[in-house]
Amino acid sequence: MGEVILEMKDIDKSFPGVHALDHVCFNVRRGEVHALMGENGAGKSTLMKVLTGIYTKDSGTIIYEGKEIEFHGTREAQDAGVVIVHQELNMVGHLTVAQNIFIGREFKKGFSIDDKKMNEEAAKLFKRLNIDIDPTATMSDLTVGKQQMCEIAKAISHDAKVIIFDEPSAALTETEIEDLFKIIRDLREQQLGIVYISHRMDEIKVITDRVTVMRDGCYVGTLITEDSTKEDIVSMMVGRVIYEEPKTKSMVPDDAPVVLKVDHLCAGKMVQDVSFELRKGEILGFAGLMGAGRTETARAIFGADPKESGDIYVNGKLVEINSPEDAVKAGIGYLSEDRKRFGIVVQKTISENTTMADLPNYMKGIFIDKKKEKKVAKEFVDSLATKTPSVDQLVVNLSGGNQQKVVIAKWLCKNSDILIFDEPTRGIDVGAKNEIYKLMNKLASEGKSIIMISSEMTEILRMSDRIVVMCEGHKTGELRIEETKQELIMNLATRDIG
Fold first, then answer.
1. How far apart are alpha carbons 457 and 287 in whole angstroms?
2. Cα 457 from chain centre
3. Helix, coil or strand: residue 45
4. What's the pLDDT tens digit per position in 130-173?
5. What H or E segment, with its residue span, contains residue 490?
6. Cα–Cα distance measured from residue 393 to residue 386, given in angstroms and rounded to the nearest whole number
7. Domain boundaries, given as residue ranges, for the chain
8. What is the pLDDT of residues 238-275, one digit of tens each?
């Protein structure tokens, strides 16, 4: 690692009612990958927004390349070589790759845009990054992983010296993550300073040199990655020790009644002849690699996607589910992996979101009974320990973990006995994960039955009573937790379907 290229000293920032940053310190060296970690709401994003001029700091000092600076907007930061690669990709689908990279900074030939020059410059960027992407390809035709690579190329095109990666691997496959890491290592070799924000502990150990931890808007400390353990980092993040021991015994009696039976379900290429049973009070884990068909199976059961054949039984009775409305009537709730798109309305309040699936029961004539709605929402806020000033808070202002609790409250309000949790802790920090795990165990102990789809092996092993494994649209195995090992799951998840 080289000299310090960027240093933030005693950065303070307050919003009405919130002290978001309390004299935070952070620095980045040339040729290093420096992780910035903390629970949701710890202040990581706020600190980076202060750095790049989105927010104005209340006090403190930013020193960049030996000079005190203060950027007034992201364009100014980019021009100076400080660039963010966001988790949500900011690409225009119908434009070409090269047009996206140089959007707003197009090369001109007279009064016309010089597409040939942009294609040439984009090709040079991809060569520097060892990426095989056609600059003339339409952006919407690329995979999410390739689009992420284009975002990185766009950052490099600003002559970047410091690149901030904000949850860059959240939507990537394992292969794409490996490709991303190769690029990050190349950038490190080129002496760039890299800030890496992620909740994925295993990634932090693989790709970073140092780790700085924030908690509740404060700087907690900085560790050298190779000299620290996962437990060290987690303890700093949450201020307490969190144990992630795998479950060794099913909590469900052998004679527990079957509440959901799926028989020879087919729904397109990704759901081929899938059969399984779910028992009362059980957490049934669905494991498999990206593209295994787990989400597609859940969506077919919930009526979000049409099924081609197969039967679904709820409490022994054959039910016809052709829409989510049919599934809700049958007592099935679905927590989508994309909660902001399918689970909640972020610009509505906690109260409004909580009663959304059961609105007819909160009507007084043609009006919503707001008093009743708030009373019920408050009960769920208390029982689920949702962190919020009030039930009138807009959901957009909550952390990821608390947004997830609002989605859970919505289905509990509807009194759904069968809950499908699709990637329940995606984008959620380690402390909030632990709360979601406790909540799921509590729901199961109270007799709710849960299907949990997860791409995290530790999560599958920690939470499941039984595990269904899928590969390429097929169920390839079913395991009791007592007999399960990671290697066994991976063998089933990669089985040749041929």
1. 8
2. 16
3. helix
4. 778 899 999 888 877 788 788 888 888 888 899 999 888 766 77
5. helix 486-493
6. 11
7. 4-238, 258-493
8. 776 665 678 889 989 989 999 999 999 999 989 999 99
Annotation: CATH topology of 258-493: Rossmann fold (3.40.50)
Q: What is the DSSP string of 307-371?
A: -SEEEEEETTEEE---SHHHHHHTTEEEE-SSIIIII--TTSBHHHHHTGGGGGGGEETTEE-HH
- Strand pairing partners for 477? 469
Six token digits for residue 357: 């699936």
* CB of 264 closer than 8 Å to CB of 309: yes
- With a cut of 80, say whether residue 88 has pLDDT above it: no
CATH no. for 4-238: 3.40.50.300
Strands 367-368 and 363-364: antiparallel
Spatial separation of the C-alpha atoms in residues 305 and 406, rounded to whole Å: 24
**Which strands form 67-68's sheet, in the order they lie side by side?**
18-29, 4-15, 59-64, 67-68
Q: What letter would DSSP give residue 96?
A: B
State CA 78 to chain mean position distance: 26
Q: Which two tokens stand for residue 391?
A: 């039930």
Q: Is 429 helix (H, G, I), strand (E, B) or coil?
A: coil
For residues 47-51, give the mean pLDDT.
94
Residue for token digits 């009573």? 465
Tell me how far apart the alpha carbons of residues 59 and 52 are, in angstroms, rounded to a whole number: 15
Tokens coding 455: 């791409």
Within 415-464, where are the H helices?
430-445, 457-463
Reading phi first (left if > 0) and then psi (alpha if -120 to 50, else beta), residue 51 is in: alpha
CA dist 262 and 447 (Å) reads 20
Residue 129 phi/psi, 5° resolution? -95, 0
Lookup result for tokens 């052709």: 322
AA letter at 200: R
Write down the H helix ranges in 82-229.
97-101, 115-128, 144-156, 174-189, 201-207
| Of 413 and 77, more confident | 77
What are the E-state strand segments in 371-445? 418-422
β-pairing, 4-15 vs 59-64, is antiparallel
| Structure token pair of residue 413 | 């309000």
Q: Closest by alpha carbon to 349, among 401, 390, 382, 400?
A: 390
For residues 349 and 436, what is the distance between their CA atoms, to the nearest angstrom?
A: 21
Task: Please count the other Cβ atoms lying within 10 Å of the Cβ belonging to residue 117.
Answer: 15
Work out the pLDDT band at 498, boundaries 50, 70, 90.
low
Whether 4-238 shares its CATH topology with 258-493 is answered yes
- The strand pair at 449-453 and 418-422 is best described as parallel
Is 22 strand, coil or helix?
strand
Contact criterion met (CB below 8 Å) for 266 and 385: no
Cβ atoms within 10 A of the Cβ of 36, count? 25
